[in-house]
Structures are given as C-alpha cells and as structure tokens.
C-alpha cells in the first residue's frame, strides 16, 4: 500500500467513544472546559485597546488623526513570536515553582493584564493622550503574551483528538469575551451615566469591570492541571543563552522534519482564499447598494452566530474524521463559499440572498479555521518549543491574511465583483495542491505517529 493510500485509508470502525454523543461530550471534559474559559480571558483585552477605546476617545472629542494613530498600539499582536522563546525557556520566579511553568506564566500575564486595564481606565484621553497610549500598549503586550501562553497550554494539555473541539470552544469564548469588553463595556458605561455616576468616572468604572472579568481566566488557571511532559529547564547556563538555545532549537527541530518547506507553504496558502475574499467583504456589501444597517445586522450579527455554529461544526468534523480528510473538507468548503459571493453580486440588493451568503461564508470559514488550527497544533508536538513554534506558525499564517490579501483591491478594481470572487475561489488551488502533495508524502501518517 502506498503512503498516500495509507493516509487516505478509512479510520477503524467507530466504537462508543467515537460516536456523535462522544464527539459532543468532549466539550464537557474538564481540560476542554478550562481551555474554553481561557478563551474568554484571551478575547477580553482586544477591544479594550481597540474599538472600546476608540469610542471612549471619540466621545471625549479627541481628533480623528490621533484616534487613527492609536491603531499602532496593536503592534505587539503581530510580533509576539519575537518574545515567545521567553515563555518556553524561562520559569516565572516563585509562580513557576508553585504552579508549574505554563500555569505560572498564565497567572503572571493575567495579573499584569488586569493591572494594565485598570491603569488605562483611570487615564484622561484629552489631558494625557500619551498616558492612554502607554496604557493601551501595555494592555496589548500583556494580552499578546497571554495568547502565547494559552496557545502553548492548549496544545500541551489537550489530546490530539481534543484539539479541534478545544479550539472551537476557545474561538466561541474568545468572541464572547470580545463582545463583553466591546458592546458590554459600552452598555455598562451608558448605564453608569443613566444612574447618575459622574461623567468623568464612568469609563474608569467600565474598565474596572473589564479587569474583574479577567478573573474568569485566573480561576480557570488555578483549577487547571499543569500539562505533563514539559521540558526540564537547565539552570546551568545563563538566561540569554537559554533563550537563544530555545529559539534556535525551535527552528532547528521544525526544519529537521521531512517536507518542512512544503508544510510552511501549506500554512501560508490554506486560508488564503478565505482571507483574499474576506478583506473586501464590507466594501462589497456597501458598494453593491446595501446600507449600514444591513451591514451591521446581517454581516456582523448573523455572521457572528454562523461563525459560532461553524466553529463547533469544525470541532465535530475533526473529532470524527482523520485530520487529512477534515482539511480536504474545510478547503473545498472555503473554496466553494467564495462562489456564493459571485452569486450575490449577480443577485444585487436582496436581503435574503445576503443573509444566505453571509451564513455560508461565516459557517464554512469557521469550520476551516478550527480544523486548520487543529493541524497547526498537531505540528507543535515538541513540548520544549510549543509556544515558540505555535507563535511562529500563526505569524506565518497571517502572511496570507495581510500581505498577500492586500492585493485584493487591485484585482477587484480590474475585474468587477462577480469575476473577483471567482478568482478568490481559484486562490484555494495552491493550498489544496500542497495538501495533496503532503498526503502523498505520508505527512499526516507521520503526524499521527508523533501524537502523544
């Protein structure tokens, strides 16, 4: 039997553990529930240094130029892989000894995050804009570091067949966390104003409430168990030497694998068609004649619900089927969903058609995201370098979403919307081609053999 046939071979006959009920019950396992709670904590900070902060500054009559420049405080999210080796190489003093390496880092970053959020809430956007910028930057740094640790903790604590379910729950909780710190904090501030709290204090109280929400992740960390099988950190060498060895080791271990370059290409291109179309979704909806209310209600509201359902569907697919089969399903769904936008361009201003289009796009996109992250998690099986390798791979995956997808506007301007979305569907071909190559090379059989 060829290696491709081995990868494509059907799984063993299902038993009680592999049935639908077991696939649903995986979300109730304690370690999966812990990851879900950590997802809520990870989703909280993004709006506090982004959309919610923007609303606060706009209400305070800060000029638009200054508000626009505040987008730069999100830079830590793009470069978190630079300090990820710290998380793999070093223990947090005292906390690492009491709680373990990953849990110690989690408590440390969550404490810093809560303090940064409170400090930001007590600044004045008009009188002290630089203090606000510093506070937002500190929130972003603590949040990005928390993401590094949570990703490593999730990969190390969940079994291979729990990864997709854990990620599905994590993504859903992350979105809820963003909602809580976004619309939730804004509504809370409005309520404080309605009951007579001084206008100068309402945003401080809102940010204090958001800081208290970080306790969800804090208590989840205390309830969790430290992942087994972590590396023993040698203290015979200096701190900088340890960090350097970790960074070099993470790269070296990954590139020593067979088909490493093809794997990196797959990571770049698998979600490219999704990102290529998604970067212009809002512009497309407005350009063909829909108003802002339709955009907010359907694209954001209906899309949010569809994405949540798609995430859990992706978890069930990855739980029930081999990883390579799940990736084929996700890749083909992503490709086909882009053609629905071509149909929408032909239909024009039709609310029913737009609702269906957004449901299909968000549902299939979320399936692809969860299954793809399950694959990336499977790549990071070396416990000595989990945080570093995961941060590097996710940064590489963002290449398609940022640099490659940035050409979408030029293509749409030359082709028109119907042809543009057909082109974005074709953008899935490189990723699917590399997937076929990796399957033929036995890559997924090797991954299955490496799992704990």
Automatic annotation (TrEMBL):
It is found in: Membrane. InterPro entries: AcetylCoA_trans_1-like (IPR024371), AmpG_permease/AT-1 (IPR004752), MFS_trans_sf (IPR036259). Keywords: Membrane, Transmembrane, Transmembrane helix, Transport. It comes from Ancylobacter amanitiformis. NCBIfam families: 2A0125 (TIGR00901). The keyword Ribonucleoprotein does not apply. The chain crosses the membrane at residues 32-58, 64-83, 104-122, 171-192, 204-224, 261-286, 298-318, 325-346, 352-378, 390-411, 417-438. The keyword Transmembrane helix applies. Pfam families: Acatn. It is a multi-pass membrane protein. Its main location: membrane. This is PAT family beta-lactamase induction signal transducer AmpG.
